[in-house]
Amino acid sequence: MNFEHLVVVNDPADPLLTELNREEVWFGLLCRAEDARPFLPGLEACTIVERSANELVRELQFGSALIRDRVTLMPMESVRFESERTASHPGGSLTITIEEPAEGVLVLRFRYLTTLPEESGSPDRAYAEYVKAAYHQSDLDTVRVIRMIAESGRIQ
C-alpha cells in the first residue's frame, strides 16, 4: 500500500492556529524519533538500541509485540521510519517531510509504504482503507503533539 497526504501546520487563512516555525516542527519530529510514546497510543516502550549522527535504531514495545525500526534524520527536512519485517509484523516505511509550498504556509507530508495489498477487488481493500484512515488520524495527532511541545517551550 502506498499512501500519502498533507497535514497543514501553518495556514495564514486560519487565524486560530498558532504559527510554528520550521525549527519548532523539526524539534517535534526529533521528539517523535527519540520517544514515540506521546505520539503513538498503545506504545509502552521506545528504546534506542543504536545511535549515529543521523540515524537511530529503536525497539518499540506494543504489548507483546516488539517492532524494530530504523530512523533516518535529514535535519530540518525529513524523518524516515523503516520498520523491519518479521513473522508477526509486515514491515514498511513512513517518511515525514517538512514543506513550505508558499510564504507562511508550512505543511507536513506523510508518505507510507507497506506490504498491505490495496488493489480493487482485493479482500484486503476495505482493511487498507481503514488503515489509511487510522494513519491520517495518527498524523493529525502528531501535529497536535508537536504543537503542545512547541507551546510548552514558549515563554508566556
UniProtKB/TrEMBL annotation:
<protein>
    <submittedName>
        <fullName>DUF1857 family protein</fullName>
    </submittedName>
</protein>
<dbReference type="InterPro" id="IPR015075">
    <property type="entry name" value="AtaL"/>
</dbReference>
<dbReference type="Pfam" id="PF08982">
    <property type="entry name" value="AtaL"/>
</dbReference>
<dbReference type="InterPro" id="IPR023393">
    <property type="entry name" value="START-like_dom_sf"/>
</dbReference>
